[in-house]
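Q: What structure does this chain adopt?
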Amino acid sequence: MPDGTCRGTDLAIGPHPNFVPNPPVLHPGPPPSNIKVLLICHVFCDILNTIIV
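A:
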């Protein structure tokens, strides 16, 4: 622009749906995990956050 301002376009470009394959399973659910390991990691993170802060 002559006054130095910049403008973005209001146009989004994406592939045609025919070129984007569908996933093999529509919604497989959350990824598998070990609840005990995640719980231990959560406790360690909470302890570290209280020590650092």
